[in-house]
Specification:
359 residues; Immunoglobulin-like; 9% helix; 5-stranded antiparallel beta sheet; 3 domains; 38% strand; mainly beta; 4-stranded antiparallel beta sheet; single chain
Length: 359
């Protein structure tokens, strides 16, 4: 990690000398980028929250940056149009650039520099912000991490950006993929953005960026991407990746949102542990997913099929299957087959249970 004090000293030394007598506008409250992570040769938008400065809403604000290079050198008293920020709203300005193009530097040269050091100023240079350094997240460790996915940030928010990295080399069926798409939803698929290969606009919306060598990236702002209504509380992003026209799919993935405590995993079991056809088969599932409030069972014993439903809550669904009456006509039965699904048509269990021979 670079030492802050030497870099700050370096930044101040390189700042134009004409700025020393200018009016201070104050320090930048917050800054961030979208995409959250990006390569130096990728287009990115930087955002600046100037609510703690004396800049006025909608005021023309310019970027004066001297590291990794100084694109607007010599124009302190009359900034160039290319250095002008765009006012977004609520005291936030943005600036869109491709670092390698804007700074006329290679990715390696930018990586070896002191970082993105700058001030924000008015056109004539009569007011200026404190020195700022736009943070940059190096995500190169993902290439050797042996992870299928990685999220930046690890716990996203509804209104903030998120970059999701995908290593297709670890998922069978994605060999030689020319396009990968994001089939997803919020809160366990409650608010969907499906991948629909027959709709060109959805194909483009769900398309991942190809980083090369089997690595891909999806960038989105959840509220915008899913058109979430006002007041929506995001708990998680559930998704899978799709190769081309559904030629391959990844396993389901989930990313939990910030300030959200992941629920305990569902707990399903039969009871008692040993049963005969003269018993009641108990079925219980705790910690159910959002929207799950019913279990549908099919019990097959010999030539007899018993079906039914057990209702409950997310906290617990519990009930019994009457084997005593249901299997009374079956003789010499040694096992039953039990299929249990939830009301969302997810299979909970598909198993065979041995039966004790009743006295």
């Amino acid at each position: 990690m670079k030492k802050i004090l030497p870099i700050l000293f370096f930044a101040l030394m390189l700042a134009p000398s004409a700025m020393k007598a200018q009016t201070a506008a104050g320090s930048i409250n917050r800054m961030w980028s979208y995409p959250v992570v990006y390569k130096y040769d990728e287009q990115v938008t930087w955002y600046f929250d100037l609510s703690t400065t004396t800049f006025a809403p909608n005021q023309d604000v310019y970027l004066w940056i001297w590291s990794p290079s100084e694109p607007d050198a010599g124009n302190w008293e009359n900034s160039s149009d290319f250095a002008k920020l765009t006012y977004v709203d609520n005291m936030v300005w943005s600036f869109t650039l491709t670092p390698t193009v804007y700074f006329s530097k290679t990715p390696a040269e930018i990586a070896a520099s002191a970082g993105f050091w700058f001030r924000l100023k008015d056109d004539a240079g009569t007011m200026q912000s404190e020195v700022g350094n736009m943070p940059y997240t190096d995500f190169s460790s993902f290439y050797t991490a042996n992870q299928i996915i990685r999220s930046y940030p690890e716990e996203p928010t509804l209104d903030g950006g998120v970059s999701i990295l995908f290593n297709a080399n670890l998922v069978p069926g994605f060999e030689d993929a020319t396009s990968v798409h994001f089939h997803s939803g919020l809160n366990n698929w409650a608010l969907l953005q499906e991948y629909q290969a027959w709709l060109p606009e959805i194909v483009e919306k769900t398309r991942l960026k190809n980083l090369g060598n089997g690595f891909w990236k999806m960038d989105l702002v959840p509220k915008v991407y899913y058109n979430a209504p006002d007041g929506f509380v995001m708990e998680n992003i559930t998704f899978l990746f799709v190769k081309g026209d559904w030629a391959g799919t990844s396993p389901d993935q989930i990313i939990y949102a910030a300030e959200y405590v992941a629920p305990p995993p569902p707990d399903f079991r039969f009871f008692p542990l040993q049963i005969s056809k003269r018993d009641f088969l108990g079925i219980i599932r705790k910690n159910n997913e959002v929207g799950v409030n019913k279990l549908i069972y099919t019990v097959t014993g010999g030539n007899t099929v018993l079906t039914g439903e057990i209702t409950g809550t997310m906290a617990e669904i519990k009930g019994f299957v009457n084997l005593v009456t249901g299997l009374q006509n079956e003789q010499n039965l040694t096992e039953i087959h039990v299929l249990v699904k939830d009301n969302l048509d997810h299979t909970i269990t598909d198993t065979t249970i041995p039966l004790k021979i009743a006295d």
